[in-house]
Structures are given as structure tokens and as C-alpha cells.
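Quick entry between incubations.
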Amino acid sequence: MDPAEPDDLAATQEAVVSWYDDNARDLPWRRPGTTAWGVLVSEVMLQQTPVVRVKPAWRSWTSRWPTPADLAAAPTAEVLRAWDRLGYPRRALRLQQCARAVVERHGGIVPTDEESLLALPGVGAYTAAAVAAFAHGRRAVVLDTNVRRVLGRALEGRALPAPSLSRAEQERARTYLPDDAARSVRWNVGLMELGALVCTARAPRCPACPLVGTCAWVLAGRPADEHAHRRRTQTWHGTDRQARGRVMAALRGSDGWTGHDELLRAAADGADPAALPDRSQPGRALASLVADGLVVAGADDRAGWYRLP
DNA sequence: AACGCGGGGGT
DNA sequence: ACCCCAGCGTT
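Done. Structure below.
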């Protein structure tokens, strides 16, 4: 498809927007009355965590800490406990730092411009654009993994987007962004929804796609992913991340201080016996959590004891 | 540009 | 078993 052809462009926009009108999921953070802070919280939670797992956590968080000031004032240990198993708990830490920055820099009001949003802890290019668009109705280039995949297929005929976002990709996305702000929001959320429900990474449901007639990837016969050989499978069993996760789980379930030995046992617990034992891993995991500010190490008579911050 | 960072559900 | 998920910050 020629991206510069105005008729194709308008037809593509209309196809996505009207498909979204008919197929949008009823997600809690899309309901009328959701605050900008609620949208921001949802976006941070959705960074690498699937929608189904975010839903209950988001309801609990927004009910418990409805405003940035509420979260800013909360005990960090409670914030980390409430984060529970959403994964990547550094996000919870940054979200509280973000809440404090919103209070200090913006009087407790979530800013509307992408530049101010981007300056907040835990808010990167995607989240800044998403909050500007979905919380404030602004025109913004929202490029997440879903949008990149849909545009890559429909416009370029690629099975999956390249590992890193290119300038050309951003420019092309900007070209397709509707001029009207309200319509651009529906376009953005429509592309994301299309990627989540139809144009999925693994088993796309092309017959159900509003773009199937013009999709460059379909027209090319759905060629395979050209980057497949470069994608690294993320190993999980036996990794430091798994050990860190176990330490955090142990601390979430414990009031007050926990001893060094107990935490190291937790870190090693359940490790694959067949795997090469790495005796330094438990200690390394604990040290890295302390370095990240996710765990506090006691001093003096509390030396050798640990707790959530 | 590449890497580290959780955890669980779908295939 | 493997893959993927509304990415970000650091190196």
C-alpha cells in the first residue's frame, strides 16, 4: 500500500476506527470518569504485564490510592505488596516516584504535554504518548508492540517489527495519524485493540481483520519473520530474575525484618536441581535488590536483616 | 543498540 | 517447553 495515497490513508483510518467502535473491550480504565492518574497507573501496569492480570490490580490500586498525592504518601512497603505479582517491581517503585513528582512539579495534576510526561519516573516514549492521548485526548504517536506489529504488517508486509524502533517507523506512524485529535485517539486505541485481539503475534485472525483486503503482509502471502534468527529466547529457569522474584515474594509475605539466611534460602528455593548450581546467585540477587532500592538492608544491630523499604 | 528486569497464560 | 505480553532505564 502506498502510504502517501490520501484515499488509502483515509480508508485505512476509517476501517480501524469503525472496527474499534464495534469491537472495543470494556476495560475498567476505559470507562467514563477514569482520571488521568488512573490512566497513567494502567499504562505503567501494562508495561509488559497482560491485560487480564492488570485488571484486578488496577481496580485495587485506584480504589486505595485514587490520586497521585495518595500514592505519594503511602508506605513504600505497602506499595510493593500491592504490586504483588505483576512483575518487574521496579515499576512500582517508579510509579510512586512518579506520583511524588506529579505532586511536587505539577501540583498533583497529571501533566497533559508529552514532554512533561516523559520527564516523569517510569514514563517512557510509549507511556507519555498513551497518557497524552488516552487521558487527555491529545494527538500523539502511540507506538507500542501492538501498533508496531499492525502497521508493520499492513503497510510494510513484515511479519513482526524489528527489535528496535526506527526513525522511519515513527515517521510513517505520524503520517497515518489522523489530523483531528479525537479521531487520532480512536485510531491509536483501535490499532492497539486490533493488535491485541486480531493481528496477534502468534496466530493472527486475518479473516476477522478490517484491513485484510489491503494488508501488505497478507498480500505477500504472510512471509515469515525476517528477524527470527536474532530474537533471543528469554530463559527464565535458574536466572537471577527468578531468584529476585522469590526474594521479593518472601519479603512481601513477611512483616518487619527477615534474616539473611532465610532470604538466601528463598532465593535458591525451587531452583532446578538439574541445572548447574550457582552458589553466588542468591547473594547476588539480594544485593541487586538492595541496589535497586527494592530491599532495605539493616545496619548495626540489624546487620544481616532485611525488609521492604 | 543491547541488556536486565517477573510472572503467568496461551499454544 | 516455548513464546509473548499497552516498556523503561542503564550501559
